[in-house]
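Write out the 3D structure for:
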Amino acid sequence: DKNTERDNLFAITYFKEAIRKDSYYVPAIVSLANTQVENYRQGWDQSDKILDEAKRYYNKALNIDSTNTSTIAGLGVISDLSGKPDEAIKFLLKAYDKDKNNAVALTSLAFIYLFELGEPAKGLMYLKKLQEVEPHDWLLMMNIGVGFAQLKNYPEALRYFQKSSQFNQKHEWGPYSLAYTYERLEQFDSAIYYYKNALQKNLLNSKTYEGLISVLLVTRKYAQAESIMIAGLRYLPNDHNILYGLGITYQFKNKK
């Protein structure tokens, strides 16, 4: 992933230099604000100062070009990051009203309703609108699946997690989400299959070990659990989930 902290800081430096050369160059102003917001979102700099500065740049761009919907959506994102979802929704809806294909506005609205306000039906509505714009985005398919899972519509959740896996066959999130859903449905054989598939894609994901170990222990597959955890300790020697799982396995495997 090229979006590292160092790359982010380089981007900020060059955007500022572009603005110094032309203080009315809106693309550079908006890009600088976007990059500062990303700096905050990633946890590289979570000071109020960086969000305040990003907000000033968005407002500056808006004063130059009042039709720039990226700027309006950006102000909505800052409001959301500042813990003001109601204010954020106003900005984001304004951006969406001006540009029905604004991915930032649609994604942010969906996330606010899905993960902050507990209204998955509304969140899904915006994600489905975004699907019309980006029909092959694997992460979007994943989020739609999460929305359906929140609504307990597990067949649709599984369908979208499958799509996500097909669109990005290298990432573990697709099979992990399938496994987690099958586990909730108590379809343990399918859950084990997909947890193992997720583990093959990333041997360093502690949550995958946690999920797989849980299902193996519930189904009393102690030998499999022991083998997987011992192998896992080679990659994550200090992982508390694996260590705890091994303890549970040795406690119960002779009590079948």
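The mean pLDDT is 94.
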